[in-house]
Design a protein that fits this description.
SBP_5_dom, Peptide/Ni-bd, four-stranded antiparallel beta sheet, globular, ABC transporter substrate-binding protein, alpha+beta, five-stranded mixed beta sheet, 472 residues, SBP_5, 14 helices
Length: 472
């Protein structure tokens, strides 16, 4: 129940809500807000819906929302890091807040839709418990359709909130069980101990499809996927020709449709195709890959594998055990690279982010389950992964044009210019100076029983709404 460090997921199961909601059309829509307007480049106006209360009955008005925002900025590192220096939030009406900034803040809609930033809560009630977070169970600090009545490390219990602003919740309550083992989650549905199992590995799909009474449901295109990062600090990928050849050797259709049986979408860009700024520029071309390697002096031997000055062209593909779907992905990429003469070894590191920051660890391509536009926000990814010295720039990427474009994007309010910048960055990362790239794009997936056979996985981790119910 610590809202600043652990409670960010409360919007996923119908307890908490946000001011804006990111939807599968790739756009941000008002949620607790009725409108979000940007009348001037450095001023935003937020208008709240009328008649909303917290589950404890207190009104969700402009002062209450300002208190929630200020508490988040004071206590949450995610919120603090999301707000530009000099930004000011102020109450300008009973249901109106105004945001002013020294420079334009075009990503505010995405910030307001990000669960890790501003969950709207009763800040006064949170402050009253000090850090005795257990006292918030049953305190009705959120606005969602289901109120928490019990919570420990095994499960959360919640009951319907009768005063919910959108209408009567469809369920009397719900239980969320925290089961780390994917097979145990699947068995719970098969044994009728649960209705819905989240995050099943794709390898389980054939067995589930063959089992009566359970269903492997695929949902909407996500914004994340399996992303590759290239190590430019050492090894063959310091050669830009090898990096370009890798991109063209990967068969994105084969990975999505053959390896993962349609459970993932084919990558056509760094970004998911449902995002309005996605530039669909990916292609598979082994012939071009071979020509790039030939021109760079990587000569194919009798066995088809390449070498230069006696050194074999071989890469280390880094994966991590916490994501089992990386095993078939890495095996497929290993085979695809071999078709153009690039050798590859798969190495598994526990806690891959920490492993990649250790200079003594050898890796050439890190395979990570992450996205370049979480909650429809692109700036955080670009700042963290592409700029020199950034905390997650594991491979030492440093491109002068990208270094200029990324800060420009941060304060560029014009949608056309923003799209132009993002297209240019995608072009650089594919055609000129490759580094980060998508292997595929996630699709939501769940395993459900017959009662919930119509249930589709929620977009942007929104698993439970006030309308979630068994099928008719």
């Amino acid at each position: 129940m610590n809202p600043w460090e652990d409670g960010f997921w409360m919007q996923e199961f119908g307890q908490a809500e946000l001011l804006m909601q990111f939807r599968e059309d790739g756009k941000h829509h008002p949620w607790l807000l009725s409108a979000l307007e940007n009348p001037e480049p450095t001023r935003w106006v937020m208008t709240l819906r009328e008649g909303i209360t917290f589950q404890n009955g207190k009104p969700v008005d402009a002062p209450a929302v300002l208190a929630a925002i200020e508490a988040a900025i004071a206590n949450s590192q995610s919120a603090k890091g999301a707000v530009p220096e000099g930004a000011a939030f102020a109450v300008t009406g009973p249901l109106e807040l105004t945001v002013t900034t020294p420079a334009p803040w075009p990503e505010l809609p995405g910030v307001l839709a990000d669960e890790a930033v501003f969950l709207i809560l009763d800040a006064e009630a949170v402050a009253a418990v000090g850090e005795d977070w257990g006292k918030l169970v049953g305190a009705g600090i959120y606005t969602g359709p289901y109120a928490v009545t019990a919570l420990d490390d095994a499960r959360m219990e919640a009951v319907a909130h009768p005063g919910y602003w959108q209408g009567k919740p469809a369920l009397p309550g719900l239980t969320v069980a925290f089961v780390p083992d994917a097979n145990a989650r699947i068995l719970a549905v098969q044994n009728d101990e649960a209705d819905i199992a989240l995050y099943p590995p794709l390898a389980a799909r054939p067995a589930v499809d063959a089992t009566p009474g359970v269903h492997f449901n695929i949902g909407a295109l996500s914004t994340g996927g399996f992303t590759g990062y290239m190590n430019l600090r050492q090894g063959p990928l310091a050669d830009v020709a090898v990096r370009k050849a890798v991109l063209r050797a990967v068969d994105y259709r084969e990975i999505a449709e053959d390896v993962f049986r349609g459970g993932l979408a084919q990558a056509t860009s760094l970004y998911a195709a449902n995002l309005p700024f996605a530039l669909e520029n990916y292609r598979t071309d082994p012939t071009e890959a071979a020509a790039l390697l030939d021109a760079a002096g990587w000569v194919a031997g009798p066995d088809g594998m390449r070498a230069k000055d006696g050194a074999p062209l071989s890469l280390v593909l880094a994966i991590y055990p916490q994501q089992p779907d990386l095993v078939p992905l890495s095996t497929a990429v290993q085979a695809q690279l071999a078709r153009v003469g690039i050798g590859a070894e798969v190495v598994s590191y526990d806690g891959i982010n920490q492993a990649l920051m250790e200079p003594s660890n050898r890796w050439d391509i890190a395979m990570v389950s992450t996205g370049a536009a979480g909650w429809g926000r692109v700036q955080s990814f670009l700042d963290s992964y592409l700029l020199p010295g950034a905390r997650r720039n594991y491979g030492g990427y440093d491109n002068a044009e990208v270094n200029a474009l990324v800060p420009e994007l941060a304060t560029e309010p014009d949608p056309a210019r923003r799209t132009q910048i993002l297209h240019r960055i995608q072009t650089i990362l594919w055609d000129e100076d490759p580094y980060a790239f998508s292997f595929n794009i996630h699709l939501g997936r769940v395993i459900v029983n017959d009662r919930y056979a119509c249930y589709k996985p929620g977009f942007a981790l929104y698993h439970v709404s006030w309308q979630t119910a068994p099928c008719e």
